[in-house]
Design a protein that fits this description.
about 350 residues, alpha/beta, TIM Barrel, 7-stranded parallel sheet, 15 helices, about 10% strand, globular
């Protein structure tokens, strides 16, 4: 693992000291970069971009070439899994992702395919292999998936949603059907993440975007319980691969997330890292948590907020600097560059 030239990110995940706080950005290969927009245009549509290993590799590397980041993250989508399960993913212009065959009944759930990651999702594994080769061990590569709960909400709603009424109806009217759906997604996700690790991903992350819409009881039952199964499975088969869990709007559940045995917990911008650190008692690394909106600010404001995040975590080597969620598409890349330089300049003081 340590043949990598820049090991800061993996060092933090493995509880080893670093000279400065490592940094990567959620959605770092994305629409705020002119070169990404150019490649996306050439691809014609999002599915072609994500589904063509050479193009996925190209956009994964764009932020690595432009910025001095400490990790690359595979360019893909959390909805590749339900697509491979037979739901027919497509993207409406300006509307986001949609499925031709949403899953609403026990029969729909029963009929779901369990895809082989090296067959139906081969294009993702080929992208991982290609990216690893092209990175040439300059920085580590992060593989990822959506959490079973988050993926389930898209599968049941058929698209994004404001009130999740189909999913909540299933949860409260037919709990066993929802568990059966989540079990199928979890089995597929474990195989998918293991295949990414086998193809060359050096760290894994699970994005639980919609865990924050649940109650404490239903979060434990329908979201965290299934992420726990993923952590257990990865630790069993790939014990050297660190795994990060991130629940958006899940600040109050950080102690429970940290107890899963994951190596790091993502923290959104609604909680100070000081509090997150107290809640998790330094048992895991913390990743985050600059408000992405700060990148619309002046350089002076960006500097002030970067300093605030670093101070909030305080001294210690278990912090990975990141945004509290994905970067916005209208952010100026110059501001991103300034934020990165500021982290490089200010963070060594916290690693004395």
């Amino acid at each position: 693992m340590h043949s990598i030239k820049n090991t800061r990110f993996l060092n933090v995940l493995n509880n080893e000291p670093v000279d400065r706080t490592p940094l990567w950005i959620m959605r770092q290969a994305g629409r705020y970069l002119p070169e990404y927009l150019e490649t996306r245009k050439r691809a014609g549509d999002f599915m072609t971009l994500a589904g063509t290993p050479e193009l996925a590799c190209e956009v994964t590397l764009q932020p690595i070439k432009r910025f001095n980041l400490d990790a690359a993250i595979l360019f893909s989508d959390i909805l590749t899994v339900p697509d491979a399960m037979g739901l027919g993913l497509y993207f409406e212009a300006g509307e986001g992702p949609r499925f031709k065959h949403p899953v609403r009944t026990p029969k729909d759930i029963e009929n779901l395919a369990t895809p082989d990651p090296e067959t139906e999702l081969r294009y993702v594994m080929d992208a991982v292999r290609l990216i690893r080769r092209e990175l040439n061990d300059s920085v580590p590569l992060i593989g990822f998936s959506g959490s079973p709960w988050t993926v389930a909400t898209y599968m049941v709603e058929g698209s994004g949603s404001k009130d999740y009424h189909h999913t909540k109806r299933l949860m409260y009217a037919d709990e066993s059907a929802l568990h059966s759906l989540l079990s199928k997604i979890t089995t597929t996700t474990i195989a998918y993440l293991r295949a990414q690790a086998d193809a060359g991903a050096q760290a894994l992350m699970v994005f639980d975007t919609w865990g924050g819409i649940l109650t404490p009881r239903t979060y434990q039952l329908f979201s965290l319980g299934y992420m726990q199964q993923i952590v257990d499975a990865i630790r069993e088969s790939h014990s050297s691969i660190p795994i990060t869990l991130f629940t958006k709007n899940g600040g109050m559940w950080l102690p429970a997330i940290a107890r899963t045995g994951c190596h790091a917990v993502g923290v959104d911008w609604t909680l100070d890292l000081r509090d997150a650190r107290a809640l998790t008692q330094d048992t895991v690394a913390l990743q985050g948590n600059l408000d992405p909106g700060v990148l619309y600010g002046t350089h002076a404001k960006i500097r002030e907020e970067v300093q605030r995040v670093l101070e909030s975590y305080g001294a210690g080597h278990r912090h990975i600097f990141n945004l509290g969620h994905g970067i916005h598409q209208f952010v100026d890349p110059e501001n991103v560059q300034y934020m990165i330089e500021t982290v490089h300049e200010l963070s060594p003081a916290f690693h004395k």
